[in-house]
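Posting for a labmate who doesn't have an account.
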Amino acid sequence: MDKILVQDLLVRCRIGVFPHEREHRQDVVVNLVLFCDLRPAAASDNFEDAIDYKQLKWRIVEFVESSSFRLIESLAAGIADIALADARVQKAVVRVDKPKALSYARSVGVEIERGRAL
């Protein structure tokens, strides 16, 4: 299966369980792997046959920046739903990292994998 990769998308949102975390928007870093068949786009070299990852990025940015989740697990699941809204995406792997969430660690993250029911 072919893959589209979106790496290190930096977005800000309200995220966290503690009151001090919810006072201000925080950085999160989103990474996506979209599993899809890229042969139609490769064969035609036509944009209409491709997944528009720029539009996907903007949908994710809008979703994340307007969200207010307590858990990064919930945020990641919402991002996966957005990716899977395009019927050509068969599976999405979403990683969300929250920089500076733990002392002595660069970030804390979750990675989820969601696919279409067969």
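Reply:
Got it, the structure tokens are right above this. The two ends are 16 Å apart (CA to CA).
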